[in-house]
Amino acid sequence: MAKQKPNPKSENIPEGAFDRGLIAWHAPHYLRYERGWFWFVAVFAVCGALAAYGYFNDAITMAVVFAILPFVLILEHMKKPAAVLVVISEYGIRFGELRIPYSRMRGFWILHQPPMVDELHLLTDSRLHPELTIQLMGNDAALLRQFLVTQITEFEGKNLGMLDSMVRILKLS
Predict the structure, then answer these.
(1) How many domains is the chain built from?
(2) Distance from CA of residue 168 to its chain's centroid?
(3) Which residue range(s) make up the domain with 68?
(4) pLDDT tens string 29-67
């Protein structure tokens, strides 16, 4: 019988360690913007124009996608983001069911510009979720930073990227 090689990424973390937090709060799973009727009219008009363009240029798949897109956006808008538990523990960070040990994080930065932006950004070594954004929900950003600096690298002076800024302006997420 061959011995199993130890996994170099495995962590020696006690059971339930992510549940015993130093700082904890509830945050929405993702940021959701309130959209007015003008936003929906503009989306329907743009998607209608793109669907017509696709139809008249024999790009039927494009026409179908842009014809369906506004209805998908309406269905998505009706859904509220779930509130998830965020726990900052001595072993790592729990965001809902996701548990990330500090050894799997490359760094963090906090964007604290109330009332518009108040969030924690984590850069991980995950290929699926390389960057995780967590809403602070009024928690003390200075206290959070003071603890996280002792655990992982802080990327100072980072701001919202151009794509993130456009998403916020256009209220796409």
Answers:
(1) 2
(2) 13
(3) 37-78
(4) 887 777 788 888 999 999 999 999 999 999 999 999 999
